[in-house]
Structure formats: structure tokens, C-alpha cells
Specification:
The protein is of the alpha+beta class. It has five helices and seven strands, in the order H-E-E-E-E-H-H-E-E-H-E-H.
Length: 170
């Protein structure tokens, strides 16, 4: 059977399409992205131009106001007063350290949370990882509810922050 030029072209086009899409089907890591931080919502949520609302992956920071989410940290011996103080300090830190700066985002297996926010590890211009930095300063705890690639590293950083009595642990 002789192949027609259209049939040959169609097979070639399908092969190219398959090769282009294969990494996404194989569960390959999401590529990095970057943008400028234009707004700080709170300690663990930023607005990044060209991307939108970004939730810092793998961490949780205290809320500005009393919240049912305080329960875990209160069980760890952190007072409500300390939680509100750390929430303000974290917001202030993020404004001074990342607002207006170009950051690089790396993604894990889950790209969005249930609220439609982009989940990302956020790298500062100097190469440090903001998510981990907030844990080291005692401004954040590891988000234990879901697994993520850097969870073990973040747990070690949190244990060290507690040991050195930084932020929440002071």
C-alpha cells in the first residue's frame, strides 16, 4: 500500500504532538516560572505579576486575626498574642524582603490548591527559598496535612527553629 503525502504528513504531525505532550503525561516536574511580587496578602500568600495569587507551598503562617486554624499552634504552647505578633512580623518581613522583587517559582506535583491559588516554592533574587526562610525565622510552621517534595527538609528546619527559639517558639 502506497502512503499518500497527506497520510504521511498526518502521521508526522501526530508523532510531533505526542513527543511534545509526553512529559506532561509522564508526571514530569513542572517547569520554573518567574515574576515580580506586586502584593503581599499575608505571611504565606503573594500576588505575582503574570501568575496571580501564589500560596507558599509546604508552610503555614499565623493569621492576622484569631482563627480556628490557631488550634494547632496553641496546642504547641503558642499564645494567641504571640500568633498575632508573628502574623504582623511575617507580613512586614515579606513586604520588606520580596515586594517589588523578581522571584523564581518552582512547582511540585500539585500546581493549585482548592482555592485556585498557584502552589509554589518561591526563590528570592539571592537564591534563598522564601518558604524555608520563613520556617527558619520561626514565622511559619510546616504544613503537615499534605505531602510535598521538601517536607522532610522543612521539618528539620522547623525543629532547628524551635530548638533555637526563633519567632513562634520564643
Amino acid at each position: 500500500m502506497t502512503r499518500t503525502p497527506v497520510r504521511t504528513w498526518l502521521r508526522a504531525a501526530l508523532l510531533v504532538l505526542f513527543i511534545a505532550l509526553a512529559p506532561s503525561f509522564a508526571g514530569a516536574e513542572q517547569p520554573a516560572s518567574s515574576g515580580t511580587v506586586s502584593w503581599i496578602y499575608d505571611g504565606d500568600t503573594l500576588k505575582i505579576d503574570g501568575i496571580g495569587k501564589v500560596r507558599l507551598l509546604g508552610i503555614d503562617t499565623p493569621e492576622k486575626d484569631d482563627s480556628p486554624r490557631d488550634r494547632y499552634l496553641q496546642q504547641q504552647g503558642v499564645s494567641s498574642t504571640t500568633l498575632r505578633r508573628i502574623a504582623k512580623a511575617t507580613l512586614k518581613f515579606n513586604i520588606s524582603e520580596v515586594k517589588g522583587k523578581k522571584v523564581c517559582l518552582q512547582f511540585d506535583d500539585e500546581r493549585q490548591d482548592r482555592y485556585g491559588r498557584t502552589l509554589a516554592y518561591v526563590y528570592l533574587p539571592n537564591g534563598s527559598l522564601l518558604n524555608r526562610l520563613l520556617i527558619e525565622k520561626g514565622y511559619a510552621v510546616v504544613y503537615r496535612r499534605f505531602d510535598f517534595k521538601l517536607k522532610d527538609d522543612f521539618l528539620r528546619a522547623e525543629a532547628e527553629s524551635r530548638r533555637q527559639r526563633h519567632g513562634l517558639w520564643h
